[in-house]
Amino acid sequence: MSEHLVTFEQDGAVGIVTLRRPEKFNALDIPMLRALETALDAAEDADGVRVVLLCGEGKGFCAGGDVEAWSALSAADFQVKWVRYGHRVFDRLARLSQPTIAVLSGHALGGGLELAAACDLRVAETQVKLGFPETSIGVVPGWSGTQRAVRRFGAQTVRRLVLGGEMLLAPEALSLGVVDRVVETGRALPEAKAWAEKIAERGPLATEAAKLMIAVAEGEENAAAAEALASGFIALTGDLKEGVKAFKQKRKAEFSRT
Questions:
Q1: Quick check: is 255 in a domain?
Q2: Of 34, 84, 108, 245, whose CB neighbour count within 10 A is largest?
Q3: What's the domain count of the chain?
Q4: Are residues 184 and 225 in the same domain?
Q5: Same domain, 163 and 175
Q6: DSSP 8-state assignment for residue 80
Q7: Percentage of the chain lying above the pLDDT 70 cut
Q8: How is the beta sheet containing 168-169 ordered, strand by strand?
């Protein structure tokens, strides 16, 4: 069942989304993408969740897109049903209201690294490899590996990964800013949980607004973010309450700029 391919659970203020296809190193196919989208919706809607961790079950965080899932698609289906739908799901992750941490206890390759890049922070175990191997089989990174990854990691680092085919071990990835913390094998999830709990102690509304403003500066968000910030401010005002009350009572509103 697709709902078991990606799960969501809550541990206090921390939500944990887990990719559960270990026999394929959590390679993504359409059912996995659908299940991930559903799990992200659940994480954002869960009462009290202030930070979301993204994990992979087994030995790999995510091996990217399942070649068997996309290689038989027509060109039109590859563009719409694979690339564009993948973008929608990855954008859903990037725009989650809560801060997100990718827990890299296994390799993050191709779409797996793109998935990690869509998170705000990344904790990697020392043995983990990261890279974009797509051009070795004649395809290009299609889920923001040449766009979001460039904004987050820098163009030259992405050139090395995409054009040069380099694989980074976690310590080098840390030096290049591709990951934020490196820990010993088996310590990624405890480290990420501890970090998440510290983040969760901060003001949730301030944290959410700060995440959105950083995304604007980075180019991840634009007009929609400006409208969200302005609407959030307006929603707290007495003027909005008076306007809605007057509308319901079919009278002219008496605004007070409060």
A1: no
A2: 108
A3: 2
A4: no
A5: yes
A6: I
A7: 97
A8: 60-62, 107-109, 129-131, 168-169
Is 103 in a helix, a strand, or coil?
strand
Q: Are residue 231 and residue 196 in the same domain, yes or no?
A: no
If asked whether residues 85 and 178 sit together in one domain, one would say yes
What pLDDT digit, counting tens, does each position of 131-155 carry?
999 999 888 898 888 999 999 999 9
Q: Is residue 257 part of a domain?
A: no
pLDDT per residue over 113-130, tens digit each? 999 999 999 999 999 999
Q: Among the options 57, 114, 125, 221, which is catalytic?
A: 114
Q: Do 177 and 193 have their domain in common?
A: yes
- CATH, residue 190: 3.90.226.10
CA distance 198 to 54: 17
With 0.85 as the threshold, say if the pTM is over it: yes
**Within 10 A of 250 (CB to CB), how many other CB atoms are there?**
6
Count of other CB atoms within 10 angstroms of residue 124:
31
Catalytic residue among 57, 125, 134, 220: 134
**254, part of any domain:** no
Question: Is residue 111 assigned to a domain?
Answer: yes
Domain span holding position 187:
2-200
Q: Which of 88, 91, 20 is nearest to 60 (CA)?
A: 20
141 and 52 within one domain: yes
Is 134 a catalytic site residue? Answer: yes
The alpha-helical segments, DSSP class H, found in 182-237 are 188-200, 204-218, 223-235
Query: CA-CA distance, 35 to 242, in Å (whole number)?
Result: 41
Cα distances from 128 to residues 50, 105, 179, 237, in angstroms, run: 27, 7, 11, 48
Determine which helix (DSSP H) or strand (DSSP E) holds 249, and give its type and residue range.
helix 238-249
Q: Which of 221, 232, 229, 231 is nearest to 94 (CA)?
A: 221
CA distance 127 to 10: 28
